[in-house]
Amino acid sequence: KGLAPLETATTTSNIRNMLEPHQLKTDTVETERILTVLDETIAKLEMGSLIPRIITSLDRFADTLGPEITSSLMEHEKLSNQMETLLSGLEEGDTVRAEEQRGCLNLLEQRLKCSVRNVLRLLLANPLLCQTLKYGVWERGAPAEVFLKAFGEFQTFMIERLLTSPSEEEEKVQFMEDISLRIKKNNEAITALQAELAAAIQTREEEIHKKDNLIKDLKTSMQVLTEDYKVSIQQMKQEGEKQQEAELQAAQVRCAALEQEIKELGAQFQALVLEHRASELALRKRKCRLEMEIVNWMQKYDADMGQKQAEYDEINAAYNKEKAQLSVLMEKHALLLQEYSQIVEERRRCQEEKERALREEIARNRAATCIQAFWKGHTARIFVKNLRQKMAKSKKGKKGKKGKQ
């Protein structure tokens, strides 16, 4: 029985160690990527759930957000209003009209998704701004809080699953089976102990009945003893009164000594009050001097800021003027670019015509050269043939003359 609490604590510690994931670090790149995706998703969900609150208090955060994020949020608000208007005016009777509205609804839904992604991209690019918005925006809606809580539980579950190896999972299942068997045995032992307890309770009630009888006997004896004690109590009261008088005299002496000590401490207190009043006066003078310096610095700051504001207005006016000039130049540049494209296209066509004519002329020259070469060869062959025929005739004529002779 003395070792039971220690064994219970050890068993509880073993159960906690077995059920918790042993692996503290990820061992694969895929696990790290999954955990990173879960963290990024929670960050996007937190910021996405704050977008409606930010839009409702856009005037408050306009300076913090900047023009680009403010314009994106205004565009998102416009798309949200269009979506609500379209959903509220959705007609069910006319089939053609309903199909058109569903098509518009799908298109508007895609645009709204793109707007949310754009706003989240701009917000998450500035972590300091995200922290400011989390602390500055009011609480989220109940559905968003429920969804974030559920996703956080899902992330915890996924982390436990990813950090638990298959062997640890098998050990955990085996351990749970052992625990179930142990619980079954404990329940059987508890049933047996309850039966023993009922028997012990019955025995205890019998003993209590016997003790009640004994108590009655003791009460009668106590009455007798009470009468004997009254005499001794009277004697003790007399001795106590004497002792009280002696202690009262000693207390009066101590009170006189304490009163003298109080007078001395009062004089010391007065001296300390005078000293502290002098130091307080010096501190008040220093405080007044510091307040005057602060006022002077504030006036100087207001003057400097007024000068800076004037410079900013002047630069902003020059910027707007140059921006207008830039728009005019951009329009002229667009016209000139169009004319230049037309000129380049005409030059390209002329160049292609010249190249085509040149290729045709080269082809004609090659054909003429081939024809001339063929003709020259043909005439040469005819000339050689005729020459050979003449030479053959002349040889035959000479042979005939020799035969006649």
From TrEMBL:
Superkingdom as given in the UniProt entry: Eukaryota
Coiled-coil portions: 176-203, 241-275, 312-360
UniProt keyword terms in alphabetical order: Cell projection, Cilium, Coiled coil, Cytoplasm, Cytoskeleton, Flagellum
Subcellular locations according to the entry: Cytoplasm, Cytoskeleton, Flagellum axoneme
Chief subcellular location: cytoplasm
Family: Belongs to the DRC10 family.
Function in brief: Component of the nexin-dynein regulatory complex (N-DRC), a key regulator of ciliary/flagellar motility which maintains the alignment and integrity of the distal axoneme and regulates microtubule sliding in motile axonemes.
Name of this chain's protein: Dynein regulatory complex protein 10
Originating species: Centropus unirufus
Gene: Iqcd
